[in-house]
Amino acid sequence: MPIHAAAAWGNPKCLEVLVRYGCNVNQLDSMNCSPVHHAARNGHSETVEWLMKNGASLVELNLFGQKPADLALANNFPDLADVIRREAKKQLKELESKTLHPSDSIELL
């Protein structure tokens, strides 16, 4: 997929054009990898930053159970893995704050 290739090559300008014309920053490929998985695996920190700023999920697991931070670390990009982990924690907190809990009341129409 073009958006995955642009992320793997570390080309945020290309990503910008693709997203402008309808590509999804969270599009999954056949291995359940998103563009941020590909960018992280290849150590493209600028591309990862662009994807994060444009709504990329950092908590998505690929078919091997790996998150983008796991791929960055496995490919010897520990600083990038740390950045991704910090942002992933923020994403999880935001998701938790939006999740309904059993004690939440829901009004039916």
TrEMBL record:
Each ANK repeat, start to end? 1-30, 31-63
Which SUPFAM superfamilies did the record assign?
Ankyrin repeat (SSF48403)
Q: What keywords are annotated for this sequence in UniProt?
A: ANK repeat, Repeat
**Which PANTHER family does UniProt cross-reference here?**
ANK_REP_REGION DOMAIN-CONTAINING PROTEIN (PTHR24201)
Q: What is this protein's name? A: Ankyrin repeat, PH and SEC7 domain containing protein secG
Which organism encodes this protein? Schistosoma haematobium
